[in-house]
Amino acid sequence: MSTYTPAGISACDIDVARRNLRKTPPNSPPRPAAKRSPQKQKRVTPRDLELVPVLLCVARVAYVATPRHALELVLLLAACREGSASTTLALPCAATALSAALSTSNLNALRAATIATAAYATAPEQSWKALAAVLAALLALLEAPRSFVWCALAMVLQDAAQIRLTRRVAVPTRAVPTSPIRARAPMLPEPAATDRRGELQLVAQLGALSITHVAMDLWRGTCGLSPMLAARVAPLIAGAALLGTPVDDDADAFLAGVFHVDVNHALLKRLGGYYGAVLLTLLVATRREPIISMLAFVLTRRRLAHVVYWALALVGGVYASANVKLPRIERRKVFHGLVILLFAPSHDDALLGVAFGAAAFLMLAVEEARARRLLSLDDFYGRFLDQRDSSIALTHIYLLMGCALPHGLNLILKNDGADCLVLKLGGVAVLGCGDALACVVGRRFGVQRWPGSQKTYIGSAAFVGGVFAFFLFYKPIFLSRGQLVLDAMVIAILEATVPSVDNLVLPLYFSALALCAVAVDRSQQFPLAELLHDL
Length: 535
Description:
Blueprint: H1 11-20, H2 46-64, H3 67-79, H4 85-101, H5 108-122, H6 127-143, H7 148-170, H8 180-183, H9 197-220, H10 226-243, H11 252-260, H12 263-285, H13 290-298, H14 301-323, H15 328-343, H16 349-371, H17 378-381, H18 395-415, H19 421-424, H20 426-445, H21 457-472, H22 481-497, H23 502-522, H24 528-534
Helix pairs in contact: 2-3, 2-4, 2-22, 2-23, 3-4, 3-5, 3-6, 4-5, 4-9, 4-23, 5-6, 5-7, 5-9, 7-9, 9-10, 10-12, 10-16, 14-15, 15-20, 16-18, 18-20, 18-23, 20-21, 20-23, 21-22, 22-23
């Protein structure tokens, strides 16, 4: 029997097609058409929303800055990596706003170093982003050509600090009980595998710029009061020593030597190194001994009473936070509230600046001793640490730095003839009142959350209300109430979307917005800053 085969189709092709046909029963309904699976929509992440408040802050700073400075900020914004806009633009925005608020150009070299280090730290992968970063650095160097040495120094220090931070902090390490000493060492919570590149980049940039600023003051002979210089130098030395601690705790010989040979000798040697470095710096700059000058500075009736108040408030706050029955995240916010009790009532700016430096030195020294297992504080630290801390804990140091940075910017502004209370207490208001209220209210009453984030809308509203209520007791003069609310709303959105540790980022952006208000006032025909300075 012959089989008819159409032209172009072989009999073998027909047999293969018959075998592939599925058998369907007779009188069966037609098979429905296959439904196409809907395309998955891209999920909104906090990194997508992070650009909104950063763009608002950059636009605000660019409005009061010179066209060249505004162009540098735009180039940095275009060159930053995805998800790192808030950390990359934090210090450049604050430095540009400070430059616009000052009546002199004493800090052009420091601002150029800030732009250069930010451009160097972005490390973009695309060629056009690398070109934007290079153009931003070149514009900053062309404006202050004599600052090339300071920019090079800041970039070298930043690179060294970031390498050590990445090796010491970003790589999580845990003690392995291979010796009796390790067996007694409690384990810290395992850090989450999150990208901390932007956070470490900002910390390294901040440390490098702080050292560069001290070096510039020493070179120019404008270092100021001896206790203030000691308060600036001592934390930098302690931070450098902390980054020199062992990366892992597997040096059994080192631990055995510390615990069984001479613990006091190791501690005295380390403290002697701190004191020697600070003494050498102060003798070169001011020809004064640090301990005697510090005692002469503090031992007055009013300042001594203030120090006693700080000690009592600190002991009471730590005891209350350690014994209160709250979730860990809310227990951490007790320290934010303690910040208000410590720093808000202070009216002595010089004493407050020295206190910030002394507290930072003590925190870094204690953390170094804990990292070297010279002090056993893991049981106490374990009540407050979370996944953002690794083998060394830095979040409590970030809280102190977030309060100290706006105060330091206000001291620079005050030396130029203006004093902004919103800037001076900006870190205390944002972290002590706004951030704490946002956490507590958002966790207890929040329902609707920001897209892709755990932060709630009602928590952000509590942030704005807390910052506004804080400044109602102080009646700021440079910012109207409406402008203060708008600035607090921008920082609240940033707090809800920033992926890194917000204790550093939020005060810097709030300081930039406060400095913009001072710059606008100084651009008037009869500035209020000069009038208050004359009075």
